[in-house]
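Pasting two entries for a bug report.
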Amino acid sequence: MSLPDCLLIWGGKGKRSDGAQLHRKTGMSGILIRAAISYCREKGAETIEAYPENPYSSKVPDAFMWKGMPSAFERAGFVVAERRSRSRPIMRYYL
């Protein structure tokens, strides 16, 4: 799997570089998750764990969603392994 050459580039001090908003809602999360799965498989991992964030409203600030949303991980084949809080499921992918 190859990553697109339009990956988001971050500037210093947490500020996004120009054009960052163009990548929102384009499926980039899914591409990166699948690339991580491929990488872990190549390295011999048996399990991958993720800690995505469930949005608590329809207008959650982007700064709180950097870990991804559970739906993106579910589409990639992750399952909820444990739920210690309503907004932060522990998800696993078994290789």
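Entry 2 (this is the one that rendered wrong in the viewer):
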Amino acid sequence: MADTPGDIAPGNTATSNAAPAAAPGTTSETAPPPGAIAPGEKAVSRSRAGSLWIAAVGAAVVLILLIVFIAQNSQRVTIHFVGLHGHFSLAIALLVALVGGVLLVAIPGSIRILQLRHTVKKRTVRR
């Protein structure tokens, strides 16, 4: 049997719910997790080199996927378009269609962005 309320009797598997005592010279506050920014410290800001590195890695991944796509779609197909026809690799035909679709979206979008910039510039000059 236990002598004091905090003692555990031999053979008893119950554990104490008391919190462990803090080490001498320390406070009972928990330490911030590793990598956390302490109050008063600044986070590392983004740099152009870091952004360029992320863009280069992303471009490399896209290039690898493009190479795999071309390798898996190398069979020849016949394309008929507006009276023209020819034999091309399926991958090349799909990539040309992709570029055409991107241009169909990018050109009008870019024109609209330029219009909005022009409008904003005119409004700020008048003020």
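Dev reply: Rendering is fixed now. As a check, the viewer should reflect this: The CA atoms of residues 55 and 61 lie 10 Å apart.
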